[in-house]
């Protein structure tokens, strides 16, 4: 069979990501026969756990799958734990010997994934030590999977990149942006490039603006320490939002190879009009959540969260207008919006088409309804198209109607998890849905200007939106000045 075989070494194996996402994803790959019994997972972290402790964590993380007829103990027996000090070379030597032994036991042919799922301080050190102690020189392949944050700005990202590049080639590095593993984010390209109805209209002659919204209900919870140094701009815009924008804006690739797709994405990112530090306020709006009522309960303001400064200048909301200076997009604003503690958890893309040159049909209030293409990324997965049609017997009145395809209705359990897709891609050596260094660099350069402005002058209106709302008023004003408004369609 073609099932990939490998050992997955997880650094930070006691952490939240490993427990919430990685173990269940490996389980799903196993259950769905994407991987066979030829795999092993070695968890490393500082804490002194035993194999049994670790396997209990694994079993706990897959409790939701009780009804499968897979023996969870059998599955968990593929997991091993090594207490590990990332700065101690002896630990790497011992780990290497252990991996060689597992290779024999599980037929993994020297294939290794090193998955860095931990705080980024040690990313560079670990990569360097893996190489110097010989862990990357096996008879199979070895790949590095690296989680965000990939740096804090362009400079630190470049420094980190230089460090890991000393130990791994670019084509061995898989930088995770988990949005690229989402089913409907992957569908952006298919919808665009497999439909004769859309591609001819996908330009500034027919599209008036594109809106990308990713809103969350949760607040910062217990991630105050990380979030204070990040904010929504670094946490969501630099990566997820700009990646979705690149997929919407890119030219059709010549072929569906990782290199061709990436090169088109990079071109789209290069075409983004740079903003100068002084102009940031014209294009970007920041917000921070206040107290409010969510699901009938009173919730705290951001500044009242643990590990958050009571005068914090950190943004929990960003809205922005991005212009792309190329032939396809000149004149079409891309609006992005993301925030915590908003009204609902939802990620969606709205493509608003231009009005017809003349309208014969109006609704009762003389409104013209533009055509909208909506790509629902989560929690609903699907696409819908808002068209106009006659309803009833009022001949000259048109009403918006909705054509929709709902991906969830079939079998929700079978929609793969983002991490499941990405892990499988990595095992097969397909880097299409990972971010190349060039994309990371361009994204940082764009957002660095915005953070410079925001860090230089503190926001005088924080907190400026209530928990449970749709963000600060300024975010609506950003579109109103162009004659548009945010569509809420879910
Ligand atoms: C992560 C951010 O990258 O994405 C989190 O660090 C955010 O702050 C999360 O909550 C949102 O992801 P999703 O898949 O729930 O939309």
How are the elements arranged and paired?
Layout: E1 6-11, H1 16-31, E2 39-45, H2 51-61, H3 72-76, E3 79-83, H4 89-106, E4 112-116, H5 123-132, E5 142-146, H6 154-165, E6 173-175, H7 183-193, E7 207-215, H8 224-228, H9 231-249, H10 258-270, H11 280-283, E8 284-287, E9 289-294, E10 297-299, E11 317-322, E12 334-339, E13 346-353, E14 372-378, E15 382-390, E16 398-406, H12 418-428, H13 437-456, E17 465-467, H14 473-480
Parallel strand pairs: 1-2, 1-4, 2-3, 4-5, 5-6, 7-12, 9-17
Antiparallel strand pairs: 7-13, 8-11, 9-10, 11-12, 13-14, 14-15, 15-16
The structure holds 6-O-phosphono-beta-D-glucopyranose (BG6).
Enzyme class: oxidoreductase
GO biological process, one term: glucose metabolic process
Protein name: Glucose-6-phosphate 1-dehydrogenase
Write up this protein.
- The chain is of the alpha/beta class and 490 residues long.
- It is built from 14 helices and 17 strands.
- It has helices spanning 16-31, 51-61, 72-76, 89-106, 123-132, 154-165, 183-193, 224-228, 231-249, 258-270, 280-283, 418-428, 437-456, 473-480, and strands spanning 6-11, 39-45, 79-83, 112-116, 142-146, 173-175, 207-215, 284-287, 289-294, 297-299, 317-322, 334-339, 346-353, 372-378, 382-390, 398-406, 465-467.
- The strands form three sheets. An eight-stranded mixed sheet has the order 8-11-12-7-13-14-15-16, sandwiched between helices.
- Helix 1 (16-31) links the parallel strand 1 (6-11) and strand 2 (39-45).
- The model has no long low-confidence stretch (mean pLDDT 94).
- The site of 6-O-phosphono-beta-D-glucopyranose (BG6) has 3 residues, from loops.
- Catalyzes the oxidation of glucose 6-phosphate to 6-phosphogluconolactone.
- The active site is at residue 240.
- Residues 190-487 form the Glucose-6-phosphate dehydrogenase C-terminal domain.
């Amino acid at each position: 069979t073609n099932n990939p075989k490998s050992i997955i070494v997880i650094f930070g194996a006691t952490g939240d990501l490993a427990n919430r996402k990685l173990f269940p994803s490996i389980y799903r790959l196993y259950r769905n026969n994407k991987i066979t019994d030829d795999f092993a997972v070695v968890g490393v972290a500082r804490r002194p756990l035993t194999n049994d402790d670790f396997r209990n964590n694994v079993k706990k993380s897959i409790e939701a799958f009780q009804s499968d007829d897979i023996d969870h103990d059998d599955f968990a027996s593929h997991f091993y734990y090594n207490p590990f000090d990332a700065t101690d070379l002896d630990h790497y030597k011992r780990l290497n010997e252990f991996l060689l032994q597992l290779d024999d036991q599980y037929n993994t042919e020297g294939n290794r994934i090193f998955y860095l799922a931990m705080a980024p301080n040690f990313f560079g050190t670990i990569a360097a030590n893996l190489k110097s102690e010989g862990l990357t020189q096996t008879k199979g392949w070895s790949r590095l999977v690296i989680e965000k944050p990939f740096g804090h700005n362009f400079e630190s990202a470049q420094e980190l990149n230089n460090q890991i590049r000393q130990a791994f080639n670019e084509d061995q590095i898989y930088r995770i942006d988990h949005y690229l593993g989402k089913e409907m984010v992957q569908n952006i390209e298919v919808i665009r490039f497999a439909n004769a109805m859309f591609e001819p209209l996908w330009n500034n002659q027919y599209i008036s603006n594109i809106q990308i919204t990713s809103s969350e209900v949760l607040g910062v919870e217990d991630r105050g320490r990380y979030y204070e140094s990040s904010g929504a701009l670094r946490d969501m815009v630099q990566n997820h939002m700009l990646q979705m924008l690149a997929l919407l804006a890119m030219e059709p690739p010549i072929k569906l190879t990782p290199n061709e797709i990436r090169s088109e994405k990079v071109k789209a990112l290069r075409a983004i009009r740079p903003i100068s530090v002084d102009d940031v306020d014209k294009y970007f709006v920041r917000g921070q959540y206040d107290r409010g009522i969510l699901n009938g309960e009173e919730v705290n303001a951001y500044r009242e969260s643990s590990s958050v400064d009571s005068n914090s200048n950190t943004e929990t909301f960003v809205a922005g207008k991005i212009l792309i200076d190329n032939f396809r997009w000149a004149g079409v604003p891309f609006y992005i919006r993301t925030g915590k503690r908003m009204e609902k958890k939802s990620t969606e893309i709205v493509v608003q088409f231009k009005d017809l040159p003349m309208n014969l049909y109006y609704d009762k209030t003389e409104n013209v309804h533009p055509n909208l293409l909506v790509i629902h990324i989560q929690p609903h997965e699907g696409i819908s198209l808002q068209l106009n049609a006659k309803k009833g017997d009022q001949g000259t009145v048109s009403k918006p109607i909705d054509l929709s395809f709902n991906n969830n209705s079939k079998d929700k359990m079978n929609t793969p998890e983002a991490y499941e897709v990405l892990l499988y891609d990595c095992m097969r050596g397909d880097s299409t849905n990972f971010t190349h260094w060039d994309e990371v660099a361009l994204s940082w350069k764009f957002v660095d200007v915005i953070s410079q402005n925001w860090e230089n002058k503190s926001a005088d209106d924080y907190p400026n939106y209530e928990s449970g709302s749709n963000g600060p008023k300024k975010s609506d004003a950003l579109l109103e000045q162009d004659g548009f408004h945010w569509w809420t369609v879910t």
